[in-house]
Amino acid sequence: MTKTPNRAPDPLERQPDRAPADEWHDVGGVRLRRPFKIRRLGHFGYNCVDIDAMLDFYVDSLGLIVSDRSGTMPARLPAEIQAELGPNEKMLHFTRFGSEHHQLVFISQRVWDWVGQANGSAGASINQVTWQVGSLAEVVGGAEWIWGRGERLLRSGRDMPGSNWHTYLFDPEGHINELFYGMEQIGWDGLSKPSQMWSGVFHERPSLPQPSEATEVADAGGAGIDIASGHRAVEPTPDGVAVDGVVMRRPFKIVGIGPVSLFVEELEAAKRFYTHILGFDVRSEVGWNGHRGVLLSCGTDHHNLALYEVGLREAIGLDRRNDSMALGFRLANYRQLRAAVAHMVARGAEEVQVPVELVPGFDYVSHLRDPDGNLVQLYYYQRQCAPEDPFPATVSGGAAQWPEVIDAPSDVFGGQQFLGPWQ
Question: What is the pLDDT of residues 88-120, one digit of tens each?
Fold first, then answer.
């Protein structure tokens, strides 16, 4: 995978405890050392060897919902490659478990390898690791700041379907990370935006400000677009499984995504990137049979990202193509976790024993192998970690008495993030 070129000296590395005054950034009125703050893992993407089997595993068995299918990228493929692919492999598949347009994306490995020739990502089993920040200004400012530190950016702009403004960048190992601020939300009717509204796609860093989501919807209606003509997944009628008071197709419900675990050749370089550039905190360092790892957090969850030395991959029985050890999914409660594992095993999923020394932060956790050999990490609870620094004193009164910009509390912007674009 592509390595990042040599970088310019980083003042954050020279002064790990405090940056010079002119290197602080105003992020929503709060002083931070970067012009953005990652809040959570938003979505993730796999490049699939057997995309039909992967969809059967994640959609039919695990319960994800297909929110959209797109043929925009495969349409650029040479005719001889398109002729080799089946009808499913000619499309991007966007899936979700909640209201966000997508939380897990699938694309054919053969399609990805053709597209990835230009940027050096051909052969990767992961197509994106996507982190949510708090605003469009953070996306744009973050891209400028990251690029200014010599990091390798892929592109900035806006993608459809999903409507998310973003910037894509590479970590030192070639894993593609994405920063975004808000995702299209799918409501009670299950409809995504119609393809006629995809014309707002940008492939360059946007100027600010941009119109609100509500303005775009109003403009589409004024242009005669049927805004209720988007994709809607056809779900079979529930078969009568009572799940904590609700009739469901399966005896469980996925309610969260993450953490994500990546294999890396150079652990210290990857750790430096995710802490100094993207702003993660080290939660703990782990080891097993001579293999090392580091667990990183962007909030109060025990960890949102785990980095493991690549030698661990073979030691726990994963294939050489697997760039990720596991992708986590949280179940609604402990009862549903037990039901989900039993359901998946009954449908033929293999449970893999991952040494507990490598996955602290959970009480009960299971790892299942998907058809491409990636591990799915199922759990119902992840330990929440309070910051070590004392909480700031409460300041009451009117806005006129408050400073325009404040120093960041240690747990600033923690907790649940607003899921959709601003109205």
Answer: 555 789 999 999 999 999 998 888 887 777 677
Residues 310 and 171 in one domain: no
Range of the domain at 344: 238-387
CA dihedral of residues 105, 382, 41, 267 (deg, nearest 10): -100
**Whole-angstrom distance, CA of residue 38 vs CA of residue 279:** 7
Q: Is residue 354 part of a domain?
A: yes
Q: What is the rounded end-to-end Cα distance, in angstroms, of the chain? A: 40
**pLDDT, tens digit, 9 for 90 and up, residues 322-372:** 999 999 999 999 999 999 999 999 999 999 999 999 999 999 999 999 999
Please say if the pLDDT value at position 12 is more than 80: no
In this structure, are 156 and 284 located in the same domain? no
